[in-house]
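Cross-posting from the modeling subforum.

Setting up a comparison between two proteins and wanted a second pair of eyes on the formatting. Protein 1 (sequence, then structure tokens):
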Amino acid sequence: LRLGEAAFKKAQSAFAHRAYSDAIQNATKAISYGYEVSRSEKIKNDSVKRVAFAKHPPKPARPIVASTRPAVQVSSPAATTAVETSAPQGPRNPEEAMMHYRKGLAAIRTKDYCLALQELENANQMDPSNDRVYIARERARQECTATSSPAGAKEQ
């Protein structure tokens, strides 16, 4: 049990430090010892994906044409900067999609649903298979339309 725990902790540490080959080896050891099997498999699978991604980096992003970006209503100067820098970069980029997902969740927490919708739309364009992005985007869309329409005032 201690050997499995030690291997699992080494795998976590290696993954955090982006030493994916070490993470794969240590996660495999932890799995063989039966320690935190599902979490060890996740570390191993994520490490394998990252190694494969490093071997085959994505193609350079195409320049974004201004007419392809959807129009967004922005209420503050700080939000303008965030929207301008968060333009979609292309299909299937899960790591950048998660960055936009986290920005979208932060905007939801601050009740800036329209900014959240824009960030989550960007995340969905980069990783359309992510269910968490889809759910958060739908919530932000509902809240944005409810707060932006005159009849959308909520009664408490």
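Protein 2 (same layout):
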Amino acid sequence: MRLIDPYLDLPTYKKIVSQYGGDYSLLEILMLRGIGSPKLDYVSGLAEFDEIHNLQELERSVSNFELLKSGFIIRLNKRQKLAVGIAHFDELENIEIESWPVEFDGRELREGRLYVTFKNQTILIFDVPVQVFANVGKYFSKKPFLPFFNLR
């Protein structure tokens, strides 16, 4: 995974994204039913993300994924401190969601933890809140992620 400056000018950003297959067109985005993941809570795994994550203990480190044609972007935002990583699918080894039951509004639902493992053995860890658990599973079941995705 490569880190990129979250404040890049648009032409430079587009040039980098093109190295990862480029953006999807509006029609392709509609056919995929969106390219952005629900918001996840970053836990650990990448020193540059950890640095931002550890700034304020009481604040959430909100992350999300965005599909590109040959890769994906991971964004981290904590109190307007931003970090952005970009990777090719061939750098991925595994995406796994570990889940457990929780009681929520009188119903039994699921929450969990997402592990994104790269071939270089970097493992990014995210908490998956109960409110978005089902949609996170649907997101990583999209065709580009499917060969790497496991639910346990």
